[in-house]
Amino acid sequence: xxxxxxxxxxxxxxxxxxxxxxxxxxxxxxxxxxxxxxxxxxxxxxxxxxxxxxxxxxxxxxxxxxxxxxxxxxxxxxxxxxxxxxxxxxxxxxxxxxxxxxxxxxxxxxxxxxxxxxxxxxxxxxxxxxxxxxxxxxxxxxxxxxxxxxxxxxxxxxxxxxxxxxxxxxxxxxxxxxxxxxxxxxxxxxxxxxxxxxxxxxxxxxxxxxxxxxxxxxxxxxxxxxxxxxxxxxxxxxxxxxxxxxxxxxxxxxxxxxxxxx
Amino acid sequence: xxxxxxxxxxxxxxxxxxxxxxxxxxxxxxxxxxxxxxxxxxxxxxxxxxxxxxxxxxxxxxxxxxxxxxxxxxxxxxxxxxxxxxxxxxxxxxxxxxxxxxxxxxxxxxxxxxxxxxxxxxxxxxxxxxxxxxxxxxxxxxxxxxxxxxxxxxxxxxxxxxxxxxxxxxxxxxxxxxxxxxxxxxxxxxxxxxxxxxxxxxxxxxxxxxxxxxxxxxxxxxxxxxxxxxxxxxxxxxxxxxxxxxxxxxxxxxxxxxxxxxxxxxxxxxxxxx
Lengths: 262, 274
Fold this sequence. Notes:
The complex is a heterodimer. Helices cover 39% and strands 25% of the residues of chain A. Chain A is α/β, with parallel strands linked by helices. A 6-stranded mixed beta sheet of chain A has the order 5-6-7-3-8-9, sandwiched between helices. In chain A, helix 7 (200-215) links the parallel strand 6 and strand 7 (219-223). The longest helix of chain A has 16 residues, at 200-215. Chain A is globular and about 60 Å long. Chain B is mainly alpha-helical. Chain B has one domain (16-272). The longest helix of chain B is centred in the middle third of the chain and has 35 residues, at 79-113. Chain B is globular and about 65 Å long. The two termini of chain B are 40 Å apart. Chains A and B meet through helix 1, strand 1, helix 2, strand 4 and helix 4 of A and strand 1, helix 2, helix 4, helix 7 and helix 10 of B. Strand 4 of chain A pairs antiparallel with strand 1 (7-9) of chain B, so a sheet runs across the interface.
C-alpha cells in the first residue's frame, strides 16, 4: 500500500532532515563516584565503621562541569591522561551512567564498540554467541538474522562458526567480537581503545570498515591514547584534564598541545 | 529495516520502575537469548542432557523418602507424592533467588560497559527456573501413575501456583541482589537463611506434626502458602482453592513490585561506585 510506504519513508527521512540538532549534547555535567575506603565491602565492616562514626566512602568527582556538543556525523576523540574522566564521559553517552548534575542528551541509537568479547560464552557456538552478543547490544533477533551471513563472512572463522567458542583461538574470538560490534547500524558509535584486533591484514580490514561506517554519516566518539589513530580517525579532539575540558578543537592542534604538555 | 532515531535526555527520564519495564520490553529478544543460553549451557557437556533436569530431583526425592516414609506414615500416606511437588517448588525458589543474587554481584562489570536493562538477567534466570520446573513435572506425573494416583483436571491449576512463586522469587532475588551488591557478605548470609527457611516451610514434614498453637507462625511464611498451593493438585488431587490462589498471587505480585522498586532505585549506585 502506498500510504504505509509513505509512512515508512517519513520515519526514516524526517529525523535525518534536521542537521541542526547535535547528536550528543552535554550541559554542565558533573559525575560523582562514591569510592569505598576499603575494598572488602561487607555489611560487618560497614556497621563497624559507622559505629566508629566515620564514613565508609569518600566522593570522587570524575567530571566537573563538562559541556560539549557533537554534531551528526562528526568524529571526535577524547584524549587525556589516565584518570582524567575519559571513560566516564563515554559511559554517560552510552547511557550506562547518569550524571550527578547537569544534562546529557543523545539523538539516535548509541552502540558501544568496546570490549567486544565481554558477553561471549565459551560453551556456546560462534553462531549462538552472535545472537547473544547482538541482543546484548540492543539488536532484535530479526536484525541479527538479516546480517548473520555478513558477520560470519567478516569474522573469517570458517566451519568453526558451529563449534563451541572454547575451541577458538584468541584471534578468532576477537574477530567474531569485532564483526558483531561493528555491524549494529548505530547512529552514534563509542569506542574505548582496543581497535587493534587480530593480525595486520585483519586490522586493515577493521580500519576499512570503520572508514565505511564514518562515510555513512555515523557519529563517532573515540577514547584513545594512540595519537596516531586519533589524528587518522577524528577531525576534532577534546582534551580532558582532571575531569575538566582543557582544550577542544581541531584534532591536530589539540593533539600537538597535549603532546607538548607531557 | 529502519531504526527510528531514539532520543535520550538524562534530565527527562521517566520513573525508574517504569523505564526499566519499558526497556525490558524493548530488549525482550535479549531475555529470550539469555534463557536459551542458560538452558543450553547447562546441558551442553553432559551425556544425559535434559534427562538430568528430571533425574536430579528424582534422586534427592528418593533419598529423602527412604529416610522419612516410615516416620511420617501415620499422618502422611504416599509420602513420596507429598514430598516431591514441595521439594521441586522449593528448589526452584532457592536456586532462582541464589542465582539472581550472584548475577547482580557478578554483572556490575558488564553493566559498566554496555547499556542493557539490568533486570533482563534476573527475569531470564526466573524463566530458566520455570523451564527446569516444567521438565521436572514429567517424573512427578510418572510417579503419580506408578502410585496409582488419579491424574485429574486439577493439575491444570498448578502453573498458577508456579507463577506466583516465580514472581515471589524474582522479587526476593532482586531485593537481596540489590543489598548484596552493596554488601558482599549479604549473599552468604542469604544462603544460610535459605537453609533455615526450608525447615520453617512444610516441605519435608507434614504440617500435622506441628503443634496447633504454632500454626499461625507458619502462616506468616509466604513459602508455606506457595508450597501448599502447588502441592494441592498433585497430592490432594483438588484444584487450588480460590482464596489460596489469591493469597499466593497477591504475595507474589507485592514482593515482585517491592524488589523491582528497590533494585531499580539502587542499581545506578552500584555502577557509580568506584
